[in-house]
C-alpha cells in the first residue's frame, strides 16, 4: 500500500497539471495545502510514536513520577522510612539485628553473607485472583533496606501498554537481591509475575530467588488462635499495626477499572496507601520471625497455645534447643505456674495432651505422665470425655513400670467410658474397635498380673 507521503505527492503533481500556467496562485495554494497536510501527517506519526501523557496533578500529590527506560514508561512512587520508625510494635531497624536468623528458612550455610539488604519484599495489586494470562498486576509494590532507610517503591501502569516497561524495571532490580519476602507470594504473586515476564518475552532465567513466604509460618503459629491468617488479621492481633481509612485489597481491581474508565487518579490514592502498608507490614512480620528464631521473643506476651505452636515450628526449622526451651516453659506453667489451677480453662482443652505426646516422642516419659495424671485429676468431678490419657498411662505402667494392676485399672476406666458413650448414642449395638482393643489389653494385663502374683508366692 502506498504511503501517505507518496499519495500526497501524486495529488500535488496531478493538481499542478490541471491548472493553467497563467494562474500561479492556485498552484501555490495547492502546494501549500499539500505540504501542510504532508507535514502535519508526518508530525502526527512522529508524535504518536514518542508521545507520553503528561502527569495529572493528582499523581504528584501522592509522589508518583514518570519513569522511563528502553521499553517505555510507567509510574513510579518511592517513599523512604527511617529505621527508627515503628510499624506496630517493631522498629524497622530491628531487622538488622535478627536478619541472619532468617537463613533458617533455607538452611543456607553462607549466613554471614545474608543481611537485611539481601531481601526484596514484594506485594502486588492485580486485576483478578488467578495467575492466568488474563490477570494483570497493575501495581507491584517492592521494599528493600538501604544503609539508613527502608524504601518502598510502587510500580504502576496507567494502561496495559506500560506493562513491559514496568516489568523490565523489576527484572533489572531483582538481580540485586538473593531472597524474596512475600505473603502467599510463592503460589500467587511471583508465579503471576513470571507469567507476565513470559508473555512479554522477557527472560526468566535470572530470577532464581530464594523465597521466604511468610504465610506458611504464620499458619503454623496462629491457625489455632486467630480467626484467620490473612495479613490484615495478623498485623492487628500480633504486630499491633492499626490502619485508618484503609481501602481493602479486595476492592483494588474494581477501583483500577473505575480509574481506566474515568481517568481520575484520585480514585487510586487509597490503593497506593494500602499497598505501601502491606510492604511495611511484611518488614515488621519478618522481624517477628527473626526474633522468634533468635530466641529473643518475650514469652510473657505469647499465649500458651501459640508458644506450643511456635515450639513445633522451631523444631521444624531445626532450632531444636530453642523448641525444647519453649516446651519446658509451657510444662512448668501448666503444672506449677499461672495455669496450674485445675479449674483453669487450658485444662478443658487438649493442649496438655498434645504437649504430653511431644514428651512421649522425645522419650521424656516422666513429664508426659505428670501431664496425663493432672489432666485426669481435672476431670474427676465431671464426666470424662477422652480416653487417650487413660490408655497412654496404661501403656506406660504396663511396659515401663510393670505395674499391671494399675494399668488394668486405667484400662478398665477407659473401657467403661466407651460403653457409656455407646449407651448415650443408642445407635451402636456392637463393640467398637477401641472397645475390642481394650478387652484384649485387659485380658493380657490380667494374665500378666496373675503370673506376677504366682511368681511372688513362689
Instruction: Indicate how many domains the architecture comprises.
Output: 3
Mean of the pLDDT scores?
Answer: 85
The DSSP helix count reads: 17
Annotated CATH homologous superfamily of the largest domain: Ribonuclease H-like superfamily/Ribonuclease H
The CATH class label of the largest domain is Alpha Beta
From the N-terminal CA to the C-terminal CA, the straight-line distance is 118 Å
What is the second-level CATH architecture of the largest domain? 2-Layer Sandwich
Concise account of the structure shown:
This is YprB ribonuclease H-like domain-containing protein. It holds the Pfam family RNase_H_2. The chain has 458 residues and is of the alpha+beta class.
Explained architecture:
The chain folds into three domains: 4-50, no CATH class; 57-294, 2-Layer Sandwich (Nucleotidyltransferase, domain 5); 336-457, Serine Threonine Protein Phosphatase 5, Tetratricopeptide repeat, CATH 1.25.40.10. Helices cover 53% and strands 12% of the residues. The protein contains 17 helices and nine strands. It has a seven-stranded mixed sheet with strand order 1-2-7-6-5-8-9, with helices on both faces. A two-stranded antiparallel sheet has the order 3-4. A hairpin with a 3-residue loop joins strand 6 and strand 7. Helix 11 (304-316) runs antiparallel to helix 12, helix 14 crosses helix 15 (388-399) and helix 15 packs antiparallel against helix 16 (404-425). The termini are far apart. 31% of the residues are buried.
